Each structure stands twice: as C-alpha cells, then as structure tokens.
Protein: diguanylate cyclase
Organism: Bisbaumannia pacifica
Amino acid sequence: MKARGEEGLLERVAALLDEPRHAEHPLREALEELYLKYRDQQEQLDRLMNISDRYQALAREAQQVTQQRYERALKRQKKLSRISDRYQALMRERNQTLHQEAHHDALTELPNRRLIDERLAQLDQSGRRYTLALLDIDHFKQVNDEHGHDVGDELLVAITRTMRQGLRDHDLCGRWGGEEFLLLLGDTALDEASRIVERLRARLAQVRVPSGDRWLSVTLSAGLSQHRDGEAYLTTLQRADQALLEAKREGRDRSQLATR
Ligand SMILES: Nc1nc2c(ncn2[C@@H]2O[C@H](COP(=O)(O)OP(=O)(O)OP(=O)(O)O)[C@@H](O)[C@H]2O)c(=O)[nH]1
C-alpha cells in the first residue's frame, strides 16, 4: 500500500534512472539499488497486508459461522425445552388424572375405599381422635328394580351432593361400596357425631329425584363408632359395620351407636 505522493515519487525516480544521460551519473547505481530494495520491501509489505486482510476476513467468517451455529443451537435448545415443558405439564396432568381416577369413584366423584383407607391409616399414625359413620341407603335394590338403574344412579349422585353440602370442611365423605357411604368425622366424639349424622339423615330423606311422573326419595340407616386409643382403624370400622347391621335389623331409617 503506497500513498499517492509516494507513487509519484517512485515514478519520477524510475524515469530518472531510465534516462540515458544519467547512465554514468555517480549516484545512479546507489539510487537504483535503493529503488529496487524499496520496491522489494513494498512488495513484501503488500503481500503481508494481503495475508493479514485474508486472515481477518477468515476470522470474521469463522466468527459469523460460530455465531450462527450458536444461535441455531440456542434455538434448538429453546425448542427442546419448550417441548420438554409441554411434555412435563402433560405428564403432570396425566398423573393427576390417574391419581384422581385411582382414588375417586367415577359416578359420584367421591373418595373411594383406597383413598379413605389411606386417610384412616394416616389418622391412626397421628393419634387424633375421630368417629366413623357408615351410611347405607335403605331398600336400594327395590329402587333399582322398580325405577331402573339410571334412576338409582341419579339418586346416588343427588345424595352425594346433599351429603357434601351438609358436612364440615374437615370431614371426609367417601363411597365405601355400592349404596354405602363412609363419613370420617375428625376430632369428633360419638355424641357430637351422632347429632351430625342425624341432621344429615334428615336432609338426605328430603332428597328427591324424578322417576316418570313421580318423585322418588329414600331413607338411610347409619352405624357409628368412635376410634379408641391405639386401635387399628379396621377395628373401628368393624364396630361401625356391626352397628349399621343392628340399625337395619331394628327397622332401618335410624342411627345406631357402637357401644361395645
Ligand atoms: N343404580 C345403582 N345401583 C347400585 C350401584 N351399586 C350398587 N347398587 C345396587 O344397590 C343394591 C344394594 O342392594 P342390597 O345390598 O340388597 O341392599 P338394599 O336393597 O339397599 O337393602 P338394605 O340395605 O338391607 O336396606 C343392589 O341392587 C346393587 O345392584 C350403583 O352404582 N348404581
């Protein structure tokens, strides 16, 4: 790379050296040598500048390629993490659904036997006191036989709705069997539980579902048992079940407290 003035000077020197009248000039040889060395150095410098320019262009290109690769990898990574987030959300949803289905009854959406068993086992561990009440619809087979299974189902759902409304937030109501419900009344002694269940039975007797041109209602029998210190919940349940059988034997539509 030469400045414009420098190029002009070189041309002048070359012209002077070419002139025949300077052929014998005492400075000519030295000037020619200086001129050729200078040109040589200039050519070397030009080559170096060229190499440096190419190197810089290559470095810029490499940097651009690296940057593009990095951006592509980042984009891929973001896409993958979006897919992974969606997949995880889907799996969480699936797990929740599976958990809900495994622990709840499909018809009434009430906790099923498995969930109630888990809660009772936890309660036994905690040492908190509770009373269990088994409630069973009276003559439900007759309802199905006379009005059809669909009406029976409707009645179960309507009873569940009223049961939910009639209980305190910390009580648990589950579907224990076909037409049998289990109430878990936490921190509740037998006499208080009995009042709660009687109030509930009265409300449940008011539940009506349509069947043809009639309104259908049912009564429920209940067996209650209070958990005793150190006792396994299955024992409490057996007493409640016995009490329920007694209530049925005594004519239904009543509560029986397990005393023994
Ligand atoms: N519609 C309907 N019926 C059910 C369901 N689960 C159980 N059942 C019926 O509930 C009835 C229970 O009959 P039983 O055990 O003889 O008792 P019950 O007729 O209620 O007589 P008591 O309990 O002695 O008063 C049976 O006919 C079952 O088919 C259900 O999900 N839907």
Remarks:
- The helical segments are 4-18, 28-103, 113-126, 140-147, 149-166, 190-205, 233-249.
- The pocket of guanosine-5'-triphosphate is lined by residues 107, 136-142, 144, 149, 152-153, 156, 178-179, 248, 252 (CB under 6 Å).
